[in-house]
Amino acid sequence: MSEVFETNEIAYRSCILYEAVRKTPLEDAYKNMKEVKPNVEYSDFEYWYYRFSNGQHDLKHDRSKDPKSLGFSDMPIDVVDNIIGYLGLVDKLSTRKVCRQLRAVIDKQSSKFGDVGLTIDEESCEVCYEDSTIEYSAVENENCLLKSPRKTISLKGDDWMMALEEFASVITHPKWSFQSVSIVISRKDSHPENERKLLLFFNSLLSNHQIHVDSLYMNAYSFESLAMLLPHFKTDTLSFCPLFPLEDTQENLFEAILKMDRWKNLTKIHIDRFPDGFPIEALFHVRECDVRSVELTENRLTKIRDILFKTPTFAHFEFRDEKDENREDLPVLIDRVMGAHDAYNSHDKVYRIENSKDYIQISIKGPRSDQLDIRRIRS
């Protein structure tokens, strides 16, 4: 039966006419046609289906005599520019590949997109563009399997190198900015130099670029990733989650980070664990800060009281305390350190700011009373 539809064009069109007259939905009609003519092209089927649906039932119609329809590239350039301005990131990436003219229009536009991310772990590498994901995974014979919503293909090369090149080519576009960029590197191979090799390659791809992003999220095994990549990102907000505590050999890295202009220009910081042995005042230049793990020693609380409270930019800090077993409970420690000044009211947990109507509201939260919440209340 299928041979008839392959060789007899009238029989093929008759089946489409039958479906169109019965008002079978296009997608269902196409599936039915695929059962008897597996190699039917969707664009050709769609043409005949809509022609018949509009009452034009001539089975012998010569399609080549149809008036030439205007394509997208035939539109005035200002109309094309306006239409492309409404496209999302994934659609713009696809449209750039159509022709040089469209690519030039897209590349001239300043665009801001949503969330993009790169994840490299033991199993695979993922590049996420808003709601679309591209996965790269290593297969045998040094090949890489690429899976996207539109295709699955086998490529020659390293999965992580391809993922990094793909991601870098997008975020370094000089006219593009993003709401957030997420970089997660959790591939801990047996050779310690492998992560450094990955970082160096990624750093080389980002060199000479300034990436504009509202919020940067990084998750990696070491502070080396932050020290190496932060200079490339112009951002107000940083979230950093080191998978392991800072090692002694990385102390110079943290010191280098604190001297960076990119660090000094941050207004919000979220950090999973604050390294022991480093000054807590390294965080005091930002407006908002959230530290999920830090030992609140008497020395650190004293610096919060004497330095942070006097900082004009300070608005809200939150710390989750990792209490040493020999130290008193956080509420007791807070009252003792803050109570050393008359400006503190232990009953209301309020610290008055000298020569100002503003005050600091201190709260102890959490089921274990281990979360210190500090807010500047402006009058």
TrEMBL record:
InterPro entries: DUF38/FTH_CAE_spp (IPR002900), F-box-like_dom_sf (IPR036047), F-box_dom (IPR001810), FB224 (IPR040161), Mos1_HTH (IPR041426)
Any single Pfam family the record assigns to this protein: F-box
Domain F-box: 69-116
GO biological process: innate immune response
Protein name per UniProt: F-box domain-containing protein
